[in-house]
Amino acid sequence: MQIATRLFYDRASASMTSLGAKAESLQNQISTGTKLSAPSSDSAAYQRLAGIKRDAVDDKAYAANLGTAESVLKQGDTSLSAITDQLQSATELVTQAKTGTLNAANRKAIGEQIAGLVATLTNLANAKDARGQALFGGADGAPAVAAGGSYALASKPVSGIPIGDGQTVQANETAARIFTVGGKAKPDGSIEGGTNTLAMLSAIATALQSDDFKASSLDTSLADIGAASDQVSTVQASLGARAARVDMEASRLTDVAADREATRSGLEDTDITTTVVELQKTMTILSATQASFSKLSALSLFDYLR
């Protein structure tokens, strides 16, 4: 009888302690807004949350890189449009010079204008991107177009920008790919051979300003400038394709972030309505247990046993 009495009290105590602890836990979940107070609460959920947080940090870095890539690509596209405009002006000037009705002074003036276009193209090529790096420079740090009138073009491609797990995008283009017509791509991505657009335009300007100018020196000029414009358009289309890819990846990251947040919330955040209902149920059971214990422990049999 003593064992039964002790067992009764032990079980009642354990039950009320358990219900009290559960009520306290539910109250804490409501006040903090999270249902996981420690790894022991749900070890599997804690592991998943740790993975979610790591992925979120990685994607935050990738999102920043995507923003940088988008900015550089847009700047490159704008610069290439300006380069195309300059080449169009060169076409118009050469067409004017080929009419054969210009006097020497007018012809030299056109030559000076074309020389000015070469200077403008050089400045556009040597522009800096949003990071302060050469927009059309090479991986070796060389300027896009060498100073001093040699028109040496940067040709070694820069490294791509990481935008995802194992994914990169090359936001910059080299001056060699933009201003070289008919060149051959080498295994390292650089350009070998071909016609240097800047050198070609400079030669036209020099010919027009020469005292012994010959009209035949312009026979292939329009075709050369047209080919140069086509090359710029090809590079610009390539940048456009990369910009579209960056936009798609940015959209994907946004969708993934939303899905990840929904998963995190389901694992970690407190469902207030459900938890309040569960707390009320627990408190009701606890009250009933306490009332039952009080009544049972007051029976005359227990008085006798004591």
Q: How would you summarize what this structure contains?
A:
This protein is about 65% helix and about 5% strand.
Give the helix/strand class: mainly alpha
- Give the N-to-C terminal Cα separation: 10 Å
Q: How confident is the prediction overall: mean pLDDT?
A: 83
The fraction of residues in strands falls at under 5%
**Main pleated-sheet profile:** 2 strands, antiparallel
Radius of gyration: 38 Å
Order of helices and strands: HHHEEHEEEEHHHH
Helix coverage percent: 55-70%
Q: How many individual β-strands?
A: 6
Oligomeric description of these chains: single chain
Indicate the low-confidence ranges by residue numbers. Answer: none
Could you give the order of strands across the largest sheet?
1-2
Word description of this protein:
The chain contains 8 helices and 6 strands. With 306 residues, it is mainly alpha-helical. It has a two-stranded antiparallel sheet. Strands 3-6 form a two-stranded antiparallel sheet. Helix 2 (43-97) runs antiparallel to helix 6 and helix 5 (197-209) packs antiparallel against helix 6 (221-268). The longest helix is centred in the N-terminal third of the chain and has 55 residues, at 43-97. The protein is rod-shaped, with a radius of gyration of 38 Å. The model has no long low-confidence stretch (mean pLDDT 83).
Secondary structure topology:
Elements: H1 2-32, H2 43-97, H3 104-125, E1 161-164, E2 167-169, H4 175-179, E3 180-181, E4 184-185, E5 191-192, E6 195-196, H5 197-209, H6 221-268, H7 272-297, H8 300-305
Antiparallel strand pairs: 1-2, 3-6, 4-5
